[in-house]
Amino acid sequence: MATRADLATQADLATQADLATQADLAVLVGLQASGKSTFYARCLSDRYELVGKDLFPRGARNKQARQMRLVAEHLAAGRPVAVDNTNPSPQEWAPLVAAARALGATVTAYWFPPDVPGSLRRNAAREGRARVPDVGVLATLERLRRPSVADGFDAVYEVRFDGRGGFDVSRP
């Protein structure tokens, strides 16, 4: 038998699926190693194109402009797109929200509340370019702010690890 929480989660997932049938921008917001990329791969990749600065070559110039161009191209073509960066504050997400609005797209935030010990532990297990110096994680923490509908998002979902290898997604 489904619990009230199960039904609420199912309703939220149905709403998310509806958003992805139109041009929607999903902005992932959280610390490095908070689960954003894994969440995208497991929960959004079948519906959303992926854009993120980490996908560009290390020496690439104008990553912000390139990212904005790709976001605009996907949304203009009617394709939902997810931006997988830390996006810790309005400074990062406001241009994304504005671009989506200019193209008539909806904007959804996926908020990964900070779990500093967990992020540092997962980050330490990374290798090569994927590993971020701890000071970088802590600097992001200082700038990290929970997104809200007041920031221009149509919906904000909170994403947490469920302890079973998946995610719990809910409206905060």
Q: What is the H-and-E element order?
A: HEHEHEHEHHEE
Q: What's the pLDDT, averaged over the residues? A: 88
Structural class: alpha/beta
Gap from first CA to last CA = 24 Å
Strand order of the largest sheet: 2-3-1-4-5-6
Strand residue percentage: 15-25%
The number of helices is: 6
Rg estimate, integer Å:
16 Å
As an assembly, this protein is single chain
Low-confidence parts lasting 5 or more residues at pLDDT below 50? Answer: 1-11
Apparent shape: globular
Tally of DSSP β-strands: 6
How would you characterize the largest beta sheet?
6 strands, mixed
Helix percent reads 40-55%
Description:
The chain is built from 6 helices and 6 strands. α3 links the parallel β2 and β3. The chain has a 6-stranded mixed beta sheet with strand order 2-3-1-4-5-6, with helices on both faces. With 172 residues, it is α/β, with parallel strands linked by helices. The protein is 42% helix and 19% strand. α5 runs antiparallel to α6. The N terminus is likely disordered.
Architecture blueprint of SSEs:
Layout (H helix, E strand, L loop, with lengths): L3 H17 L3 E7 L5 H9 L4 E3 L11 H14 L4 E4 L5 H13 L3 E7 L3 H9 L9 H10 L11 E7 L5 E4 L2
Parallel strand pairs: 1-3, 1-4, 2-3, 4-5
Antiparallel strand pairs: 5-6
In short:
Helices cover 42% and strands 19% of the residues. By secondary structure, the protein is α/β, with parallel strands linked by helices.
Which short descriptors sum up this protein?
alpha/beta, 42% helix, 6 helices, 172 residues
